[in-house]
Amino acid sequence: MSTLTVDVSQNGCIKNVDSSSSVHELDEYDFSRLPHRPRNLNLERQRSFDERSLTDLPLGLSPHPPSRADNFFRAFDHLDSAFSPGRRSGYNTPTSQFGYGQNYEPHPMIAEAWDNIRRSLVYFRESACWDNCRVLCQLVSKYYDPIRNTETLIADFGESAIGRVAPVDSGFWWIILLRAYTKSTGDSSLAEMPECQKGMRLILSLCLSEGFDTFPTLLCADGCCMIDRRMGVYGYPIEIQALFFMALRCAMLLLKQDAPGKELIERIVKRLHALSYHLRSYFWLDLKQLNDIYRYKTEEYSHTAVNKFNVIPDSLPEWVFDFMPLHGGYFIGNVGPSNMDFRWFCLGNCIAILSSLATHEQSMAIMDLIESRWEELVGDMPLKVCYPAIENHEWRIVTGCDPKNTRWSYHNGGSWPVIFYGSSRRMHKTDGPRRSQDVRSNFLKPGCRKMVGEYYDGKLGGISGSKLGKNQTWSVAGYLVAKMFA
Questions:
Q1: How far out from the chain centre does Cα 20 lie?
Q2: How many distinct helices (H) and strands (E) make up the chain?
Q3: Highest mean pLDDT range out of 98-102, 124-128, 359-363?
Q4: pLDDT tens for residues 209-218?
């Protein structure tokens, strides 16, 4: 079983951290020996397909001088070889990030996908600063003053968002992407900038601060993550907890070993130890755990209590007994006092595998569950953001009669291609004798037909969303990343 083992000496220094798997191959680091500056990689750059598709192909794009956008795309030149050590391609080979040889003629849709990514970039003072992804635009908006002819970035911390909820996940994604950029390019100068170091310290200080909560998980409001509308995910949603875990692991590799950085790292190590144990023990559900909950005693006191959260066995939903296969399991949506949300949330389970929050056995069990419940969780269009949908009276109470989150639509059991990337990477990471190439190929086939939609409705996800947003950056990006791992 893969576990996170942490030893902290009396003076608080980290002695050993061991993990059998990694965050996008984060490697098994002894964190006490973290270098002050990560080693830069001297890569021999060669033209990958993303550059060819954007410069050589007749896509009707107007040329513009090289900018930071070009540097951004260079980070993906050798993504396939970096993430797929088993492939023939390496840093000095001409194989593109899709794993094809030089003579392979790519599908025109791939070139169109890269074209859409390029078009989505937003420029601030003639430099690309972000793309048109919905999540990021909730955080920062660009204001142009025509009188003064100036551009200003305006931060939004939730005061202008739907429901006025602060997005808790955005800070974690920023740290994770900063680590991904640093590892992919070998360039540590961005992460070492005083502004980035201060940003990480502010985010982590807020998340690691003491409060009235007795759990190592983060207490959140409803609508604070990808599910940004009222869907009953308030409390301790698995998506936030998995992202929190992943961001903490990434921050340990990014923080400088100065006095403020060392103090934060010590706090991170302690939190990771408690958080991993809590989530692996109390959020995990398989057939054995389901049987244990079914026979729980209630009103137990003291540290010897088995039913630590005083969950009432009668609160178990009927569908979960049919949903749980003989071999398989998953992290449930939420755990709190007298409350367990047994719904399946895809993104939280994806991140749990990618971040090594899930042990190897748990990772394989999640994949077993998906294969056993393929029609329910994948269907015609990957992937269900949550399962099952809530409806009727429960829908009225939980969502407040939200017309956008009707059953099997949007966040209430809708299918989101953006989650495609996580599932593909998850399959790549857990691949073994029981994983066939056909399973990964099936994930790619639906995306070839309708990859640019934001979400799809229906039990099988075969209906275009009632309020579908077209040409979505994150759907296109999800398809491209999945293609890299195919």
A1: 20
A2: 19, 12
A3: 359-363
A4: 988 888 999 9
The whole-number pLDDT of residue 289 equals 96
Answer whether residue 74 is part of any domain.
Answer: yes
Q: Is the residue at 354 inside a domain?
A: no
Domain coverage including residue 108: 49-155
- Residue 38, domain member (yes or no): no
Does residue 78 sit within a domain? yes
The count of domains in the chain is 1
Tell me the pairing of strands 339-345 and 121-124: unpaired
- 58-96 per-position pLDDT tens digit: 333 333 444 433 443 344 343 333 333 333 333 332 333
The dihedral sign for the CA sequence 161, 416, 399, 387: negative
Cα gap 229→405, rounded to integer Å: 8
DSSP state of 414: -
**CA-to-CA distance for 345 and 237, rounded, in angstroms?**
9
Q: Which of 311, 203, 192 is nearest to 253 (CA)?
A: 192
Separation CA 160–CA 155 (nearest Å): 10
Between 384 and 130, name the one with better pLDDT.
384
The type of residue at 218 is: L
CB 81 within 8 A of CB 48: no
